[in-house]
Amino acid sequence: ECLLSCGIVNVDSFVGSKVADGGSTEESGEDKALAVNETKSKDSVTLEESEKDDDPPLTPLHEAIIEGDLSKLMELLKILEEAEGSANVEDAAAEDSAGVTSYDVNTQGGPDHQTPLHFASASNHQIAPSLLSALLINGHANPCIIDSRGRPPYFVAATDKAREAFRLARGTLGEEYCRWDDEAKVGPALTDEDVQAKKAKALEKKRKQRARQKEKKALEKAQAEEAAAKKRQEEDKKKEMEDAKRVRDGLKPKSSTASNVCDFCQKAAKGKRRSQMFQRLDYVYCSTDCVKKHQRELMAAAA
């Protein structure tokens, strides 16, 4: 009996422990799923932050171009040139140990990993062409370096003057400077003489255009004056014919241009329109007396 009771007690305790263990197992599974989701979300956020952190910082050259400060850019290029001339391995090691970030004229920065030449090319600043020329001619920047989207600096040029600055630099630096056509994608070389000739051609085109506009206006004015003179002549001729007819009909030439004037006595019929006056043949009269008088004159002239 003692052994049986002990066995029963052990079985019950064993079953109870199994049930308890099953509940804890389910709870622990839910907790694990939540923990995995939280870990994934944290990992994604950490990945995005790391990607943002991976963007190279802008150099002082980038900042000078953003500010449109040509004097500052020239000063920085001069410093880089002097540092390049006096640099050695010990100086580089000392800079690395001091935590100083080194850069040059071709160092890429920003989210698109663009060089200072990219920034100057894409700039809409008024002196952007001067910034480009300074980077290429004074700083000997490389126009073949592409950004993270595979674009050379010439490809992101914002204005025609920026593209012209690249072509002028190509003419100044020569064809051996880089692979202008294949990699830099820069147009044909230009010289100062080409630019001046282009400007002179544009000015000549504008001058001819203004001359054509002036001639057109003069022609339109002459045509308008001719049409007005022709109209006056026609009106004068019409009036002469009307006056001659009036004389033949025993009337005096019309002295007024008003429409309600009596053709016989030359007086205005106040308060009446021409359609309300007495009419006979091609003439209008202010009263029946004028009609009869004119009729008697015509009869006397015919006799």
How would you describe the overall organization of this protein?
The protein has 303 residues and is mainly α. It contains ten helices and two strands. It has helices at residues 2-54, 60-67, 70-86, 89-98, 116-122, 128-138, 160-173, 180-184, 192-248, 288-302; strands spanning 278-280, 283-285. Strands 1-2 form a two-stranded antiparallel ribbon. Strand 1 (278-280) and strand 2 form a beta hairpin. Helix 2 packs antiparallel against helix 3 (70-86) and helix 6 (128-138) packs parallel to helix 7. It is rod-shaped.
Shape: rod-shaped
Biggest sheet descriptor: 2 strands, antiparallel
Trace the largest sheet across and list its strands: 1-2
Order of helices and strands: HHHHHHHHHEEH
Output the radius of gyration: 50 Å
Structural class: mainly alpha
How many E-type strands?
Answer: 2
- Proportion of residues in β-strands: under 5%
End-to-end gap: 176 Å
Average pLDDT confidence is 80
Q: In terms of quaternary structure, what is this?
A: single chain
Share of helix among residues?
55-70%
